[in-house]
Write a structure and sequence with these properties.
By secondary structure, the chain is an alpha+beta fold. The chain has 3 domains: 116 residues, Orthogonal Bundle (Butyryl-Coa Dehydrogenase, subunit A, domain 1), CATH 1.10.540; 112 residues, Butyryl-CoA Dehydrogenase, subunit A, domain 2; 150 residues, Up-down Bundle (Butyryl-CoA Dehydrogenase, subunit A, domain 3), CATH 1.20.140. Helix content is 46%, strand content 19%. It has 10 helices and 10 strands. Strands 1, 2, 3, 4, 5, 6, 7 and 8 form an 8-stranded mixed beta sheet that branches. The protein has a two-stranded antiparallel sheet with strand order 9-10. Strand 4 and strand 5 form a beta hairpin. Helix 6 packs antiparallel against helix 7, helix 7 runs antiparallel to helix 8 and helix 8 packs antiparallel against helix 10. The two termini are 20 Å apart. Belongs to the acyl-CoA dehydrogenase family. Its cofactor is FAD. Pfam families: Acyl-CoA_dh_1, Acyl-CoA_dh_N. GO terms for molecular function: acyl-CoA dehydrogenase activity; flavin adenine dinucleotide binding.
């Protein structure tokens, strides 16, 4: 493997740094001090700047106005966005768009992709299931009728940016019939196949209930009752959901890395200025050792991130499927970002809890990212299952 970034990938990162240079994570009230979400919408002005810099179309083919780059480039941009806690649905919209490009109908591609790249419409993904702890695809049943129309029933929780997105990509397990379960209630029979439905936010049978994330952002519970979707808006391709889920998890790792780097940089600057007993606290061995440990965490997060991004970008084979590398990256990201923000909070003392200082925002976002798409323990279990199914050596 070669972790040297290409000129195009480096250019994407440089463009991202230029766009995010003017974004500050402070000035937003603490989630615990407001009666609802910190804002009703994402940062539309920043979204327009990302579109102008061609950063919303990184993964799209030139035929749709894109750059034709790979997930590594997207992760580089996500890393920069998280350093300043940019409030934009860049991961979800980009991942959904590249999935449509790879597997969607020609009509769906023509309707969505160019407009996504220009920032005119926004996509998001329902990836947390009914409770946030169960497989997302099992939370919704999808049944195809004789005329080709698909009918969706079920509930998806904690869908990011759903109140402001134009379309939500919803995974669902294909129902082949209905039978009575042990309690006498109806239960769907499935064939294990998963489809992805691209559902308009405003649609008959679809209801959004507001939820608030740990970071104070608006999420939505999607309740679907006999939601009818045309076949042109449904992706029925083997492995499409698995690849989308892996891209979302890897992108979340990139966000965790950027957030951790931003928090550690803030802590380093503070420790170099804050004096105790006439000396900067950065010169104290106890402070230096803790900061060094968190630096090691970040380097491990970075190495495992690029390993996972390289695997899903190149499709390179290995002893384990790419899901194994994604699991390792997510384990490090979940545990590492938690340790980084906890140390940052500790070294800042009471100042870190001041809502006029932005560190509390990093702490809230880190907790959300730590558990997003599953905890470290969940990925450790998944990695164990992979190792059992693919013994090494």
């Amino acid at each position: 493997m070669d972790f040297t970034f290409t000129e195009e990938q480096q250019a994407a990162a440089e463009a991202a740094r230029a766009v995010f240079a003017g974004v500050a994570p402070d000035g937003v009230p603490s989630p615990s001090l407001v009666p609802g979400a910190v804002a009703d919408d994402f940062d539309r002005a920043l979204w327009a700047k990302l579109a102008d810099a061609d950063l919303l179309s990184l993964l799209l083919d030139p035929s749709y106005g894109g750059s034709g780059l790979d997930p590594i480039a997207l992760c580089l941009v996500l890393r920069e966005s998280a350093k300043v806690l940019a409030r934009v649905p860049l991961l979800e919209s980009s991942a959904a768009a590249v999935t449509v490009q790879a597997h969607g109908s020609e009509e769906l591609k023509a309707e969505l992709l160019t407009r996504v790249g220009r920032g005119e419409i926004v996509l998001t993904v329902a990836a947390h299931g009914r409770t946030g702890h169960d497989p997302a695809e099992l939370a919704v049943s999808a049944k195809q009728e004789d005329d080709g129309t698909w009918v969706l029933d079920g509930v998806q929780t904690a869908v990011p940016w759903a109140h402001n997105a134009d379309f939500v990509v919803v995974p669902g397990v294909v129902a082949s019939g209905v039978v009575a379960d042990g309690s006498g209630h109806a239960a769907a029979l499935t064939d294990g196949r998963v489809v992805l439905a691209v559902v308009p936010r405003v649609h008959d049978g679809l209801v959004l209930a507001e939820q608030i994330s740990t970071a104070g952002e608006r999420l939505a519970e999607l309740r679907m009752e006999s939601v009818r979707i045309a076949a042109r808006n449904v992706i029925d391709a083997e492995g499409a959901w698995e690849r989308l889920r892996e891209l979302l998890a890897t992108g979340t790792c990139a966000l965790a890395l950027g957030l951790g780097e931003g928090a550690l940089a803030m802590t380093s600057e503070y420790a170099g200025k804050r004096e105790q007993f006439g000396f900067p606290i950065a010169s104290f061995q106890a402070v230096a050792v803790q900061a060094a440990d968190r630096f090691i965490d970040l380097r491990a997060m970075e190495a495992t991130l690029w390993q996972a991004a390289w695997r899903i970008s190149s499709g390179a084979g290995g002893a384990l499927p790419a899901a194994g590398d994604v699991a390792v990256a997510k384990i490090w990201a979940s545990e590492g970002v938690r340790r980084v923000v906890q140390t940052a909070q500790h070294l800042h003392g009471g100042f870190g809890a001041d809502v006029d200082y932005p560190l509390h925002r990093y702490h809230a976002w880190a907790k959300h990212l730590e558990l997003s798409l599953g905890s470290a323990a969940a990925y450790e279990e998944a990695l164990g299952d992979l190792l059992a199914a693919h013994p090494l050596g």
